[in-house]
Each structure stands twice: as C-alpha cells, then as structure tokens.
C-alpha cells in the first residue's frame, strides 16, 4: 500500500489469538488454536492461506460495494482508503470515512466478492495433500459473512481471523504441524512477518486482481510471486511434499 496501512495493519480487527501483550515476546509467541481443534491432522503438511486478493477479488468487490454508495474506487496505487473518491473529485475521502466503508464492506458487502480464478479447485486438490487453514485479517464483525462466503464457494476450511502481521499466528500453527507448511498472502508485510517468525514455512505471494499486480510491492528474492492459481498450486504442492 502506498501510504495507508494495509488491512493487515488495521487495528480494529479481532484476533483469533491473544497477542494483547506488547513487545518482541508477543511477536514471537502467539496462541493459536490447536490443529486438532480445527479438525486438522498435525501429521500432515499445512497450507495457510489468505482471503482478500488471494482467494477472492477484494478490490473488485469493495469497488462494487462503494459504487452502490455513489462512490468511486480508483485503482491508481496499492492502497485502500486513499483510492476512495466522490465521482469527479480530485481529493480522496477522509481516511476515517474510508475506514468506515471498509468495515461496512466486511459486514454487508464481502459476501458478494468473486472467487479468484482457479482458487477453489487448487485448494481442493491441495487439501488432498495436507490441511488447509484460512488466515484472514478482517474486522471481527465480518466473521459470519466471511464464513458464509467461504462455504458458498467450496472454500469451507477452518477460518481464523487475525489482526496485524500474520507471522506470529502462522508460526504458532506451523510449529504444531509435523509436516512442512506453506503460507500464501498478497501483502509483503505479512510475508515478511512469516519469514521472520517462521522462516521454514514456504512463502508465496499471489495478487488476484490484474489491475493491482503491477502496483503490488514484491520481493521475489524473499517470497515466490505467482499470480496464476494453477501454477501456484503446483508450487505449493512441491513445497509441502
Ligand atoms: Mg490479502
């Protein structure tokens, strides 16, 4: 994102894990539900996958939601709140106003999001090889709509809501798995966070929206970037085999 914290950095999400304590210790250790409690077999490999711009076309869905409110979402930079305008305006909406629309989208509009091409089939096939868990940074009030959306689209895997960088929770999940683990996200801060907290976890960046692909910051030397789900599925499968 250009100058707004990405959803990963939004402070208003509800964490599945308790990371209330501040400081490096809290970053290193996050409580995660145990894999068995999520219905996952700790003896199998683990695939930890994001939702927005990975399994679903978030920006497209958010744009349509805003259009329904008479607003424009302009994909001019890798940002959220700075891209929301009144039609014809040259100045974006105030950040706080944008944040309110963002929160509303998760509660009322995220159910309309289109699934990323090939994502559901890829996860179905990967789930034959290992456990799949969905790790999303979404406001807590969006949990029900999010779970319903996943279920409707053949993505009914265990769902965890996180707040902030995903490394601590991904590490706490991966360290329970006796097999290898992979992590997929669109946002560099989350990928970097997993690299720091759980360097053994294979990392993949995927950006679903073709308009965002040239704008999304990447670091291919650190995290494999694959925007096509068929190719991504093969790479993930290799990484956990
Ligand atoms: Mg995302």
Describe this structure in words.
- With 241 residues, this protein is of the alpha/beta class.
- The protein has two domains: 177 residues, HAD superfamily/HAD-like (Rossmann fold); 54 residues, no CATH class.
- The chain has eight helices and eight strands, in the order αβαββααβαβαβαββα.
- A six-stranded parallel beta sheet has the order 5-4-1-6-7-8, with helices on both faces. The protein has a two-stranded antiparallel ribbon with strand order 2-3.
- Helix 5 links the parallel strand 4 and strand 5.
- Helix 3 packs across helix 5 and helix 6 crosses helix 7.
- The longest helix has 15 residues.
- The protein is globular.
- The protein starts with 23 loop residues before the first helix and ends with a helix.
- The N terminus is likely disordered.
- The structure holds magnesium ion.
């Amino acid at each position: 994102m250009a100058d707004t914290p990405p959803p990963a950095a939004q402070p208003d999400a509800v964490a599945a894990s308790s990371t209330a304590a501040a400081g490096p210790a809290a970053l290193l250790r996050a409580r995660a539900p145990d894999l068995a409690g999520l219905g996952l077999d700790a003896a199998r490999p683990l695939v930890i996958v994001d939702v927005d711009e990975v399994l679903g076309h978030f920006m497209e869905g958010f744009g349509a939601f805003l259009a329904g409110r008479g607003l424009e979402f302009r994909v001019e930079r890798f940002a959220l709140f700075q891209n929301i305008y009144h039609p014809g305006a040259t100045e974006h909406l105030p950040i706080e106003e944008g944040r309110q629309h963002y929160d509303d989208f998760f509660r009322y509009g995220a159910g309309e999001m289109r699934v990323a091409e090939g994502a559901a089939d890829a996860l179905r096939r990967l789930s034959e090889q290992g456990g799949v868990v969905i790790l999303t940074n979404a406001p807590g009030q969006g949990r029900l709509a999010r779970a319903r959306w996943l279920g409707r689209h053949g993505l009914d895997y265990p769902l965890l809501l996180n707040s902030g960088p995903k490394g601590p929770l991904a590490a706490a999940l991966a360290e329970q798995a006796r097999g290898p683990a992979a992590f997929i996200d669109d946002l560099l801060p989350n990928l970097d966070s997993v690299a720091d907290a759980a360097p053994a976890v294979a990392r993949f960046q995927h950006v679903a929206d073709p308009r965002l692909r040239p704008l999304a910051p990447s670091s291919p030397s650190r995290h494999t970037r694959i925007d096509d789900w068929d190719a991504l599925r093969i790479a993930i499968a290799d990484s956990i085999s």
